[in-house]
Amino acid sequence: MSVSSYNPADPSDLVIEVEAAGAESTQAAVDQARTAQRSWLAIGAAGRSAALGRAADAVEANADELAALIVREVGKPLVEARGEVARTVAIWRYYAQAPYAPSGAVHEPAVGGGLLLTRRRPYGVAGLVTPWNFPLAIPTWKAAPALAVGNTVVLKPAPEGTACALRLAELAGLPEGVLTVVPGGAEEGTALVAAADVVSFTGSTAVGRAVVAAATGRGVPVQAEMGGLNAAIVLPDADIAQAAAHLAAAISGYAGQKCTATSRVIAVGDAYEPLAAALAKALAAIADPAALTEVCGPVINEAALERLTGAVDSAVAAGGTALAGGGRVERNGWFIEPTLLAEVPAGHPLRSEEFFGPVAVLLRAADLDEAIAAANDTPHSLSTSVHTRDLDVALAAADRLDAGMVRVNAPSSGVDFHVPFSGAKGAGFGPREQGQAVLDFYTAERTVTLLPAGSPQ
Ligand code: NAD
Questions:
Q1: Could you tell me if residue 400 is inside a domain?
Q2: Rounded to whole angstroms, what are the CA distances from 70 to 79, 150, 181, 185, 226?
Q3: Residue 87 covered by a domain
Q4: Do residues 265 and 428 make contact, with C-beta atoms less than 8 angstroms apart?
Q5: 122: Cβ below 6 Å to ligand 1?
Q6: Residue 457: pLDDT over 70
Q7: For position 112, what pLDDT does the model report?
Q8: Any domain includes 129
Q9: 225 belongs to the catalytic site
């Protein structure tokens, strides 16, 4: 079996074709990583810090090549691709300091003298399963902290991002067995989850749930970041022009293929009419051929395009109205117009499922309570934005929204790599990713008691 990826903006362009690892080679990669882990841990904090710093330098030195590869392999607009490379460099540098972080604490024994301490130790081999939409940043924000604290890594990237993952590992230049990529799909992902000592997954909800069940069934620690159905609440007092600009970016940026993209816009009271007009205009401007390439880009493949256009057509057939977009763009590649739909009836899948494209529904709410209830009416609570000038409203929303991230007067998309990141309810499972929090996830805490020789029992 081979794994191949094609340019979404030019489907005749084969980006890479390689042999899939298969289950046996995936197991062999884990075995090799387990052997390599002993020497990786033994090089100590200074050695691991230096190695992660060199990975950052190598990615930075090849930034233009990597940005072009992201554009070609997964269709990300160039400005965002450059941003992803810069973020990847920053993540390597940030975690290059982590080997020096304290790895435990000293406690006062309840009785007697001696030393009572806790110490965090790596599990061994971290098995990472990643999606295609951030083909450098997501593998890095999992691998760098896992490596920093002394694990070795086996990475199973999404087939659509195979070339990016292989180039990333090559540039990282780590010793044999420390960071291994196993190309493939579900077979290799399943084999990796069955063999690793700690598992981190990002991807769709259905696959994430299966990964969590498999890992917890084996009793190994697991975290999973899954799909979102993200809302934006716009209050009548908001700066409507700014809100429309932020929402247009959150709906159509990278063709809505971010887990944090906005797919439900909830307009409160009098905000509805002016917001509908301003947002429709902003999205229509992005359908212009130049902006479509620079801001939106294509969706990942033909199946995604058909799923999206089918959902839009069925929403319109059910009584919905396209205020902007609504159809495929007739050009080479998998392009769909940035789309805003009003009056989509309750129960339509566009209101309850993640479609992962530049399509949003516009909903009405009578007041803030109704808007918060509507935003919370999903298990996929990843990121919600609130647009208002009223601090009390913003504070109430930050308290009462279920989302893993609440962003006030900012798009729902956008993530700071040095703070915890995770969805709420069905959008995330297990400890948070990113920041310092994730260092705990990749280590097990043990308690050590040291008494002087000859102490009474
Ligand atoms: P996907 O679930 O199809 O695939 C994710 C990874 O799982 C891939 O590497 C895939 O090969 C692998 N896989 C597939 N079946 C498997 C199985 N049975 N066992 C183990 N691994 C298996 O997702 P995708 O299409 O690559 O990515 C898009 C999805 O990712 C969207 O739902 C998006 O919301 C989500 N996502 C979430 C976040 C987040 O942080 N919450 C970030 C980015 C993307």
A1: yes
A2: 11, 29, 17, 19, 22
A3: yes
A4: no
A5: no
A6: no
A7: 85
A8: yes
A9: yes
